[in-house]
Batch of 2 targets.
Target 1
Amino acid sequence: MTTQLSILGSTGSIGVSTLDVVQRHPQRYAVVALAAGRNIAKLAEQVRTFKPKLVSVLNQADIEKLQQLIPECHCTIVSGEAGAIQVATHPDADKVVSAMVGAAGLKPTYAAICTGKPVLLANKETLVMAGECMMAAAKEHHCTLLPIDSEHSAILQSMQGQPRDRITRIILTASGGPFRTRPQETFSKITREEALAHPNWNMGAKITIDSASMMNKGLEFIEAMWLFDLKPAQIDIVVHPQSIIHSMVEYCDGSVMAQLGMPDMRGPISYALAYPDRMASGITPMDFTKTSQLTFEAPDTKRFPCLRLARQAAEAGGTLPAVMNAANEIAVAAFLDNKIHFTKIADIVEETMKRHTTQRCGSIEDAVAADTWARETAKGLVA
Ligand SMILES: NC(=O)c1ccc[n+]([C@@H]2O[C@H](COP(=O)([O-])OP(=O)(O)OC[C@H]3O[C@@H](n4cnc5c(N)ncnc54)[C@H](OP(=O)(O)O)[C@@H]3O)[C@@H](O)[C@H]2O)c1
């Protein structure tokens, strides 16, 4: 039977890689609904190829533009957050891929979880913002949340067939990003182009900057806590510049299970799509004779303060992770607009967190309120 997919963020890096995997298995997967932002040309191309019934764009004004590009297609076109929620909850979808970037994905992802269908989650910011509510909703609606993040996919794979209560530690690997060895005194001179040049992964702009500042690992730390029901003390981060070991799980007998593979998101995407089965993903197979070294280092929180801030947010809980995430989104956007230096990203996040009085985050509305407050505060700091 063909599995029908709804994809949020179809025009992004994860969305495009997901559609690449889908195209390799035409008997197994079809696309019923797509949600995108502003890339109307790419979306038109996807509509022509995958023929979804429903499509959502960010701006209402783009509906007509899209219609003009695809006169031969008769799909329904909607817009805005309400449109993305329609995609997330399409009645014909069997699974939902959540791959919008940032807090914009929160309500659509939450709506998808509440349908009880499996949600394949790339949009880690949503779990950082509102992990407690998302996990509670997943439990209540019997929704299986499967990670599309190489580290969390590796953890899930390393847990298969093992007793969960015998886990002693999760080891999240980090590439260290493009500035792992760059002298710290030159960090304020880092350009947008340098920060966008990740050594191992080809990703969207926001996550690429998060990888350069190592905030991405901080977000993943919090994501892992929620997905695998762990305490901060149970998660370690180790820098592994080759990005071949995607993460590890340590058990009480000292054994460590790891998952290895080439750094290509089609691996975790195909695992989440086929779970608990496996299927071809298009990834280049590993050639161990060409992988001369697998090295490991401790992360440096002095050079990369975002790691420290994320641990602080994880330990405090409540609204602080949502505040951290929102301040980071504003600071990253300002850096990408050449409005602030690279080092200001962490400064703005830290100052916004300092100004916040942490409260309980018991609902999506609490997370949205903390997010809104933090955006305004961080924008003031950027200005
Ligand atoms: N890329 C990776 O390798 C990777 C790995 C692990 C996890 N992730 C996570 O996956 C998520 C997506 O990352 P990405 O690299 O694919 O990002 P990306 O390339 O920037 O794509 C983001 C997608 O979200 C859409 N979008 C943005 N704002 C929107 C809005 N307000 N309403 C509707 N759609 C909106 C974009 O649409 P338009 O382009 O049409 O504007 C695009 O389709 C992020 O949370 C990231 O942390 C990514």
Target 2
Amino acid sequence: MDKVSIGLLGFGTVGTGVIRLLTDEKEKLQEQTGCRLEIEKVLVRSKDKSRKFTLDDTKLTTNADDILENPNIDIVIEVIGGVKEAYQYISRALQNKKHVITANKDLMAVHGDELLQEAEKNHCDLYYEASVAGGIPILRSLTDGLAADRIQKMIGIVNGTTNYILSKMSHEAVSYEKALAAAQSLGFAEADPTSDVEGLDAAAKKNGDSQPSRLLYPGDPG
Ligand SMILES: NC(=O)c1ccc[n+]([C@@H]2O[C@H](COP(=O)([O-])OP(=O)(O)OC[C@H]3O[C@@H](n4cnc5c(N)ncnc54)[C@H](OP(=O)(O)O)[C@@H]3O)[C@@H](O)[C@H]2O)c1
């Protein structure tokens, strides 16, 4: 395979970063993977919105079918967020034999088991390293590199917004309110920051239940 075509669901904060990397690092990625990674289509809510990265207009679509039912697309990257539509779109992508990457921890916390089973049934990969501490990254290190180790405890600030706010408060002695406002203006924190600052996002990274943390990966019996 000399070319892999990508359909991206979402062109927001994360989607823009993905598109920027796939565009700016195209040659390096080709050298490392041995094939060209091409963005075929990008799903958005509005085609008229101004974007932080310029992309050929013909690649934008407001119709998910242009990606999910597109036989030319090999990999779907889901970065729209939310649970209901993301679940429907990812399920459909897997049923149509497309590999899926998602950064959506809320979705994986609620439907991770079902989606991984769907991926296995369709002989597709479902990767979600980006959903939990993607910048470290930790899931693959734990499942591959430290596979034979018994991890007894992991401690950390597992929410980027909280990490930003706490760092700003401790390094610059600013108030919580100011640190939160700065996080919002930089796009780290949502307009409604409840999920981040009340710990709901961090809890979702624990697989969404009150059981001890468990890692899910393709092939995991669940
Ligand atoms: N932001 C972060 O730092 C971060 C870090 C790790 C993981 N994540 C996860 O990554 C995912 C995306 O986050 P984000 O911050 O990039 O979100 P965002 O900035 O709100 O972007 C969402 C994008 O999806 C599009 N979209 C949303 N719902 C849609 C729908 N129903 N149909 C079509 N397009 C739709 C929006 O279109 P328009 O642009 O037209 O409105 C927008 O381009 C979330 O699951 C989040 O939890 C985020």
